[in-house]
Structure formats: C-alpha cells, structure tokens
Amino acid sequence: MSSLLRQVVADVRRLSLFRPGDGVVVGVSGGPDSLCLLHALMQLAPALDLRLHVAHLNHGLRGRDADADAEYVRDLARSWQLPFAGERVDVSAFAEEHRLSLEEAARQARYSFLWRTAVERGARCVAVGHHAGDQAETVLMHFLRGSGVAGLRGMRPSTPLADLRGLPDLGAPVAADVYLVRPLLYRRRADIEAYCLEQGLAPRFDHSNEDTTFYRNRLRHELLPILRTYNPRIDDVLAHTAEVMGGDYDIVAQVTSAAMSAIEAAGSPGEVRFHLRSWRALPLGLQRSTVREAVMRLRSGLRNINWEHVEHAVRVGCCGETGASATIAAGLALTVDYDTLRIGAEGRAQPGLVPQLDAAVELAAPGATAIGGGWQVDVTGCAPAEIGDHYAANDDPWTAYLDARATGERLLLRPRQEGDRFQPHGLHGHSTRVNEFMINRKVPLAARRGWPILIGAQGIAWVCGLRIDERAAIRPDTQSAWLVRFRR
Length: 488
Prior knowledge:
- By secondary structure, the chain is of the alpha+beta class.
- It has 18 helices and 22 strands.
- The strands form five sheets. The chain has a six-stranded mixed beta sheet with strand order 3-2-1-4-6-5, with helices on both faces. It has a five-stranded antiparallel beta sheet with strand order 7-8-11-10-9.
- Strand 9 (325-327) and strand 10 (332-336) form a beta hairpin.
C-alpha cells in the first residue's frame, strides 16, 4: 500500500467519513486530484464496503476541451466498471441569469448536480478531491474578504451538503442526509501528483486553472508564492489555522445556540425576535454571533454577511431608541422594538412595533386611554415626594415624567405634523425640527408619519419614545408632575 493511501485510510477512520454500505458519489473532473481520489477509494471500497458512483459535470466553458474531459471520465468509469452520471450545464448563461461570477455559478451548478446524483443513486456521501493546498487558499480567501471564525475554519472534512452556503434551495428533506466528504483534505498536492505517477494514472489538465482573472487562481499563482518568501510553510500555517478555528467554532456554536434559546422571543414567520434587555446584556461577541445566526436562519442560502453591516446592526441594537433600524443583508434589517429586537424583512412597517396614530386623542389625566393598535397610555399625577429618584433612574423610553405646571391639565396626543419643532431636553433651549431629530435617531420612514407627539399648554411636551421637551422637564422647583406611560 502506498504512503498516500495509508494516510488516506488513517484520515477516513479518524474522521469517520464513511459507514459500511455507504453509497458514495465521487465528483471526478478528470484532473489529478479527483482522479487520485477515485482510484484511492476504489482500493478502499472492498474493506470499507463502499458503493462508488462516478459523476462528472461539463460546465460548457471550455468548448472541445470540456467535451474531451467528459468523454475521458465516462470512458474511465466504464473501464473501471463503475456506474457513471454526466450532465452539461451552460454556466455562463446561469451566471448571467443569476448575476453571479463564473466561479460562483460553477460552484453552485456543480454541487447541485452532485446532490441530485446522490439522491437519485441513493448515496449518503458525495466525495470531492479538495486537498491541503485548496484549504490554504480557502482560508486566505476568507481572511482577505473579511471573515469570522466560521470562515477561517475553511473547508471541513465532512459536512451536510444542505449546510453549504450560497446554494440554490436543494428542495428535499433528504438533502440533510447527504454528506459532502473530503478524504484528501490533509494531503499535499505534490503527494497527489506523485500518487498519480506511481499508479500510472493519466489525468487531464484544465488550463483555465492558470487564468489569473479568476480570484482563486490569483491567490494560487500570485499571492501565495509571495507569502512563501516570508514563510515557506505558509500553506501549513493556513491549514493549521483552519483546524484551530474549526475547534473554536464548535465551542462558539454551542454557546451561541444556548444564548439563542435563552433570549429568543416569540415572533411571526419570517422573522427572529430577541428579548431586548436580555440581548443587550450579552457579551459583544455573542451579540454579533446571535445576529449572524438569526440572519443565517432566515437566509440559509446566503454565503457571506458583510462585517460592517453586522457591526452597524449591533451598534443600533445596543444604543438605538425604539424604532431605530439597521440594514444587514439580503433584504433583512434589525429593528429596535419596544421590548424586543427584531430581525426580519426590511422596509415593512410592523404592527405594534411602535404606537401609531391616525388622529388626535385627548388623554384622560389622570386615567387610562386606549389609542389603538393594542396600545394604552396611562397618566398618573405625582407630587415631588413621589417622584423621588424614579425620574433620574427612568430608562424606559416610553415612560416620561413631565412638569404638570408647564403642560397644564389638558394633554393631547396627536401624530407628527410637517413643520413640528421642539426643544430637546439637554440642549439648553436649542430648537430643532422633529423630523430631523427622528432621522438622526434612525426612526424608519414608515413609522414617522403616525409617530405620537404629546402636546401640552406650551406646545410639544414630549416626542414620545425619543425625548421630552426642555420646557416640560422636571426641575428642582417642580411642585407637581404627570407620569405618562405607554404600554401594550
């Protein structure tokens, strides 16, 4: 048994890549990696009790060369007495239709084809020929694009095919039972080529792999050679990074799952909600990971999430007032609700997110007034002794203490009007337009028109949920106050 074959056997057993009786669809392009993989699995199949199926996808990108590759793999399968499945896809047309790069379009077409073949053949595994060099390129690619632990762990030796990011909907529950395995992931390209030579294999070579207009090829032929002048073992360093990050990711995933269970609130289909106070109490790392997890749950096909979008969403979630919103990715936004944090479709006004008014409502003072939309406003009179420290300690944006002498006894609640101005408390009498204030507080456009404004004897007393007016604020000489509280 050759050295490489012994190493592959050890990896297969250490990682439990196969089970006795498994059907295995082997993706074979005809190149050295996939040819080595197929030949090695043929040697191991009797001992491991594997049923092999050869699969080849012609991407339609290289004309006669691609057709010759397909014929070569078909003839090889026939000569080795293995079942064969082949298909041709116009990847250029697919890329144009779905606005993808050729690399990404080819990836999606390839894995979709391999999955369908596995389902049709009743196979539990799809095996591909990725090796240690591919792993180094993948880790470097994720690093350059900006990635967290999930991306820096690179490719995994075994993963459910349905978990791959960026694929079209695989469309069947059985997809979760099909595993993508990489038996050569820890083997060097030089060892694979030596194995082909040793075994008398004659692989095909895809000259498009030399085309540096493709991003991965530029890493392989331009950047990695430069990095090797700094560290000749950079490929090993990147592969080891993937292993370390893979172990760390498992821990992060467990902690994130526990956090999600602890902070998740009931929500509607197509959204994820967190209890606001509980989410804000999480460490920053878990705030980031729970936002990412919510996005991936809602957009399982999304391959990459922009780092800046996640950071902005976390900042808004931590500091934003009720109604503040931040775009994340793929049509999703994070929005601060009264007592929850919502991640869902962007640009949709959510019923009950904030109180909304169609017309003016006079508040019972004191008393309780229903204002529609499931909301009620309670007004309670307070003497100075009753206010105490509650005023300074109030952190509920929808509760306000107002000087009753300044507001008077008649309190009117109405929607925002064009041209409204007020003096935000803390700005020493400076006046600003209410709409501009709302824009600065990132209040969604859809919520501004019906936003509740409390009117007292001197005009606007409170832009509800955002800021009270300087003239209505509690002062040391305040003799009586109104406690105004919105509640569902």
